[in-house]
Design goal:
Elements lengths: L6 H9 L3 H6 L5 E3 L2 E4 L11 E4 L4 E4 L5 E2 L1 H9 L3 H12 L7 H27 L1 H9 L4 H6 L3 E3 L2 H10 L4 H6 L3 E3 L5 E3 L4 E7 L5 E7 L8 E3 L12 E2 L1 H11 L1 E5 L2 H9 L5 E4 L6 H8 L4 E5 L2 H4 L2 H12 L3 E4 L8 H18 L2 E2 H10 L7 H15 L5 H15 L3 H14 L15 H15 L1 H10 L8 H12 L8 H6 L4 H11 L10 H33 L3 H19 L1
Helix pairs in contact: 3-4, 11-15, 16-17, 20-21, 20-22, 20-25, 21-25, 22-24, 25-26
Bound molecules: zinc ion (ZN).
The site of zinc ion has 8 residues, from loops.
């Protein structure tokens, strides 16, 4: 079980293996230009959108978005964890993994470090009045603080001296993402002056941390980076305390944050978990599937309608889970709601939870009594994408009936329209839902990353002109970080990057971008990078200018002359920089 394999060994196995050979052992591949094609094994389709590239050593399905390298493929196909997939490939290609006792010891050592550090943070919290009173103010009880082992990461020096005093090994701390090395070679703790939320595995061991600032500074939350213990996409926060109740009731409440899990738990609602990112992964859903049949979404009202959430829900439905949405009036999050109204009110809200399709219908139609036909068709179209994911016949029947009733359509015509939609796939008359629109920035950011993935020079140019923080899309920002972090850019290949992430969404982004490069032929990639970076800079400046204009108006109204002056100065400077 779960033993440590070094990143170098993983890359070595990856380099010695051909993805085409591995995948063709499972599904028939047909050659198509420089790539191979197949019907995707991960979703149902009639025309192949599953592409395997021998050159890039990645696969990507342009239908469902599944993508990654050969390990990702095996993880998905065989439903195994990353180390298991590596082991399977190693066996196939005859590389021996010397997984001796020493290696197992190493992993035990890592658990030991996490456990000592958790205790240290916990003790620090108990001594820190500001942090404690912040938690109390937000309604945390001291029992919960103990049960969830909340902690406080102090300022640099005290953490480092704690590590030294307890002989915690440098390489272990680094592997766990607890310390980092600055460009001048100095070691510093990653978590500083933050409330710490240990993330605990099903077996009760601390595998990583989430951390929150006390004030409004950004980023509000950070997580441990991926390590041989911590795989964000395969963990649900709180599941170790929720599992018993979840299994018993066959229900789970899915919330967005650590604080929601704790707030509900301390009021006696125990079957609550949170995903550690905005969108759910297939692995997390498989995990839930073991315990429950019904998932209650208790998200902030705005995020329940967001594209990332919708994609997550589509995945839940695809895995034959029932999904219901709990609404909290007044745009509250579950933690606020239960603190103000109590357990009973929350359970009542849960009882009134709408089946997901019903929720989407109501969210899109609003409270309007009368809907023009055009609007109705738009709703139908956006929901068909979701309905297509529903595997259970009964569930689908029920949803189509609700939809026809809500929009006052003839049920039979709606059904036949839906059948046609499924056959014709992407050729529906209306563009997909309004909220599916990808912001233009994200498109440009993807383009930049695409160029970086196929040219080392482009990486250098981008590094010199751009910081990962300027990416607006969180997923793009993370990929940029990974690329910039890499010490030797000549190593960077899509397969290499995929080996360094455990997030399925990130793997999918990498594989899709690297299979897109035919459109780059004939371009001077260095020059292109410069142009894209400029375009992005200009956009972010323009955004700031709009924001400044609004702020200036507000300040003028309130007569804050000094502030108006300084804002105007910034505005003038920005305008000038755009002209250059
Ligand atoms: Zn697919």
């Amino acid at each position: 079980m779960g033993r440590y394999i070094s990143p170098d060994t993983i890359d070595q196995i990856c380099q010695q293996t051909d993805i085409v050979q591995i995948i063709s052992e499972y599904i028939p591949l047909t050659s198509s230009g420089k790539n191979y094609k197949a019907l995707c094994p991960f979703h149902e389709e009639k025309t192949p959108s599953f592409v395997v590239s021998p050159e890039k050593q990645v696969f990507h399905c342009f239908g469902c978005g599944a993508g990654g390298n050969l390990f990702t493929f095996l993880m998905k196909w065989e439903n195994v964890a990353f180390p298991e997939a590596v082991r399977m490939v190693a066996q196939k290609v005859g590389v021996s993994l010397s997984l001796d006792e020493k290696v197992t010891d190493y992993k035990q050592k890592l658990y030991q470090i996490n456990s000592q550090v958790t205790e240290f943070f916990h003790q620090q919290l108990k001594k820190n009045k500001t942090a404690l009173s912040y938690l109390y103010k937000r309604g945390f009880k001291s029992d919960s603080i103990d049960l969830f082992k909340l902690g406080w990461a102090p300022f640099s020096q005290s953490f480092l001296s704690f590590c030294k005093k307890n002989d915690l090994p440098q390489d272990g701390l680094k592997e766990l993402g607890l310390t980092r090395t600055s460009s001048s070679g100095e070691i510093y703790p990653y978590f500083r002056e933050r409330i710490m939320f240990p993330v605990v595995s099903l077996s009760g061991k601390v595998v990583g941390f989430g951390a929150r600032v006390l004030d409004d500074s950004l980023p509000k939350y950070i997580n441990s980076s991926a390590s041989s213990l911590f795989d964000k996409g395969r963990i649900l926060y709180g599941l170790h305390v929720a599992q018993r109740e979840a299994r018993k009731s066959r229900e789970v409440i899915l919330v967005e944050g650590y604080t929601d899990v704790i707030s509900l738990h301390q009021e006696g609602i125990h079957n609550v978990v949170a995903s550690l990112g905005t969108s759910l992964t297939t692995s997390q859903i498989r995990l839930l599937r073991r315990y429950v049949d019904t998932v209650f979404l208790a998200y902030d009202q705005d995020s329940a309608g967001e594209a990332a959430t919708i994609r997550g829900v589509d995945l839940l439905l695809e895995n034959e889970l029932q999904v219901k949405v709990i609404s909290f009036p007044g745009e509250k999050d579950p933690a606020d709601f239960i603190r103000e109204k109590g357990k009973k009110a929350l359970l009542q809200a849960k009882q009134k939870a709408l089946p997901y399709i019903q929720y989407r219908i109501e969210a899109t139609t609003g409270k309007d009594e009368y809907l023009p036909l055009e609007k109705k068709l738009e709703i139908v179209n956006s929901l068909f994408f979701t309905l297509k994911k529903v595997k259970s016949r009964y569930q689908l029947d029920d949803m189509l009936r609700r939809l026809s009733q809500a929009l006052d359509f003839n049920e039979e015509s709606l059904r036949s329209e839906f059948r046609r939609f499924c056959e014709e796939k992407y050729k529906f008359s209306f563009s997909p839902t309004l909220k599916f629109e990808v912001p233009e920035e994200e498109e440009i950011e993807k383009r930049l990353l695409e160029v970086m993935l196929c040219s080392q020079k482009a990486i250098e140019v981008a590094r010199a002109t751009f910081s990962p923080d300027s990416f607006t899309s969180p997923l793009c920002r993370r990929l940029a970080q990974e690329i910039f972090l890499c010490q030797s850019p000549s190593n960077i290949t899509p397969a290499y990057l995929i080996n360094r992430t455990t997030d399925e969404n990130l793997s999918s982004l990498i594989s899709s971008l690297s299979l897109n490069d035919s459109s780059l032929e004939g371009f001077d990639l260095e020059q292109l990078t410069r142009e894209i970076a400029q375009a992005l800079k200009r956009r972010s400046h323009q955004k700031r200018i709009e924001q400044l204009r609004r702020m200036i108006k507000d300040c003028e109204r309130q007569g804050e002359e000094e502030k108006v002056k300084s804002l105007c100065r910034e505005l003038v400077q920005l305008r000038r920089s755009i002209l250059i």
